[in-house]
Amino acid sequence: MRRIDLIQDRKAAGHMPELARVCGCLEKLLQLLSGWVNEVEAYYLVSRRC
Predict the structure, then answer these.
(1) What are phi and psi of 15, to 5 degrees?
(2) Which has fewest Cβ within 10 Å: 1, 9, 25, 40?
(3) How far, in Å, CA of 15 to CA of 45, rounded?
(4) Are the beta carbons of 12 and 22 closer than 8 angstroms?
């Protein structure tokens, strides 16, 4: 559902390059954050097992 909202936002942002750039940066930050959270979670699970 959120993916569709992002695509619609991008179409609207076509008229405003600054907004499109900000949305792109936010998306990258979210991906980095979720990847980092996954790594921490995996590390935590492994360290608990030992």
Answers:
(1) -85, -20
(2) 1
(3) 46
(4) no
